[in-house]
Amino acid sequence: MKVLERLAALFKNRSVALVFFIIVFGLTRFIMLGPDEINPDGVNWHYRSQQFIVGLKSGDFERTYQHYHPGVTLMWLTGVPIEIYKQITGVTTYDQYNFIAFNTVAKYSVVLAQLVLTFILLYYLSKVVGFKIAYFSVFLFSLEPFFMGNSRLYHMDVLLALFVLIGLLISWLNLKSFSYKQSILAGVFLSLSFLTKSIGIGALFFVLLFSTAYFANKKDLKGLLNYFFTILGSFIVTTFVLFPALWVRPVYYLSEIFAESERVGIRKGHEQIVFGETTQDAGLLFYPLVLLIKSTPFLIAGLILCLMRCVNSFSNVLKNIKAKYHNPYIYLALFYLGYFFIMFYPSKKLDRYMLPLYPFLTLLASYGIIRFYSFLKTSKSKKVFMSVALFMFTLFYIVPAITDFPYYFTYTSPLFGTANSANTIIAQKPFGIAVPALKDYIINRYGNEPELGFIDTKPMKAIYSNSKVADIRVNGVSDYELLVLGINEEIPEKVLESGTRFRKDSSLYVNGLEYWRIYVKEDK
Q1: Which H, E and C letters describe 178-189, residue by residue?
Q2: How far apart are CA 211 and CA 323, in angstroms?
């Protein structure tokens, strides 16, 4: 018990707490960061970032529009460091030999940006809920294995989660005490949310709608006009400054972003396997299942404690109309509940689309745990509670951080049994996890660069001879010696009907999952 007390006393020193956070963040993010995975979207973003920089350098600003997401922040964050790396090393073109180096530069840039944003988030969250709850919640979501796994990807969802919450926190503080500086800063972060992913525009709409209701309740028209137009103006200026394609054809590219988002995100759908059934629209249960399967039992226990301790407080706040506008938890809850339910509508459903919820969920869990601890009357009961909490924290955060390293993307909650059991509920996507390890495994077992057949060729083509990687859905079976399937991928009908038979020869396992299966041709 004395150890727990000494730990608690030590962490009262904010400098010690922050240094400890940096160490933990670094150990879980920076080690083996480049060669752990090559996701197919990341391969695309390497090309897009390269074109983005070419557009800036050549003055062909329309090339800075590369995708409907639009991913502008990601291209700035990674395109510039990669260009600097090219200038220093003289290596200017992507090929199978230098892709990992470029990938490492890109991913280090993204993770460093996440670290900076996390400290900015901690700063503003401390102003809203106090340092203790803020630090605890930031620490928790940073250690949530699924969040960690996605933060190691060359992708945008974690950036979106951080930009959105920072923008919401600054806008909330600005409601309480208006200043033009804070208002401009809120608009900047809300713009960065949109420039990361188009769904981020929802944060701006929420802030403007809530502020309208807030100032209407106060009957303060002047306050509304100052707040509303300063944030909106800052949002517009930041968006135009950072997105050069808008300098050329603003209406066209903005309409492209939203038209493509509607076509691909809402109507097109995305293949998922739920309870063994393949579907293009995973339905209403998908996201609740994702949150249960991909969240630690510690987080879920914290949310239950929050529900137990906070339900009366929230109901009292809801009864008092004025109090609704002065409770930051209600403010954030309105946005994140809205985000959660809006995401049910698009037919394209992906588990990582729930990542923006994690910072808010850990905030609620932290509040619930600290409130429950404060509710306990005796020092003995508090010590017992701290001991149980520390044990659960070690079991559900420290152990997976060690055993699942570096493939946190594959994490599933032990509440659903083994990883294979969880895989029967919502099927795991290969997403380029352990592709560099797969390449080494194939070369060591089957000789120097045999011809390979994949369903998704992008990750392996990035680090393998392009001519030796074939698409088994398109190419004939004579174009490859080994057929490689990722987790939950099936041999296409085209191959089954070809007359050539393949025999499973070996597998590469990742965190208990048969992640990559390798088939060889049977002799006729």
Answers
A1: CCHHHHHHHHHH
A2: 15
Domain-embedded: residue 149: yes
Q: How confident is the model at residue 466 (pLDDT cuts 50, 70, 90)?
A: very high
Q: What is the per-residue pLDDT for 263?
A: 83
Domain end, chosen from 380, 403, 426, is at: 403
- HSE (side-chain half, CA atoms, 13 Å) at 321: 5
The whole-chain average pLDDT of the chain stands at 93
State whether 391 and 444 are in the same domain.
no
State the Cα–Cα distance between residues 300 and 368, nearest whole angstrom: 11
For the stretch 41-55, pLDDT in tens is 999 999 999 999 999
Name the H helices within 280-327: 286-293, 297-319, 321-324
CA distance linking residue 413 with residue 510, whole number of Å: 16
Mean pLDDT (whole number) for 465-485: 95
For tokens 């063994």, the residue is 276
Tokens encoding 504: 């499973």
Provide the number of structural domains found in the chain: 2
Range with lowest mean pLDDT among 106-110, 374-378, 437-441, 491-495: 374-378
**Using omega within 30 degrees of 0 as the cis cutoff, is the peptide bond preceding 70 cis?**
yes
Q: Same structural domain for residues 470 and 340? A: no
Whether the bond into 400 is cis, omega within 30 of 0? no
Same-domain check for residues 287 and 150: yes
Task: Domain of residue 191: give its range.
Answer: 2-403
Q: Specify whether the CB–CB gap between 248 and 327 falls below 8 A.
A: no
Among all chains, which residue has been given the structure tokens 């509940």?
337
pLDDT of residue 261: 86
Whether residue 416 lies inside any domain: the answer is no
Nearest Cα to Cα of residue 341 among 290, 300, 304, 288: 288
Q: Is residue 422 included in any domain, yes or no? A: no
Helix (H, G, I), strand (E, B) or coil at 144: coil
| DSSP structure string for 178-221 | --HHHHHHHHHHHHHHHHHBGGGHHHHHHHHHHHHHHHHHHT-H
pLDDT of residue 312: 65
Give domain status of residue 262, yes or no.
Answer: yes
Q: Clarify whether residues 170 and 274 are in a common domain.
A: yes
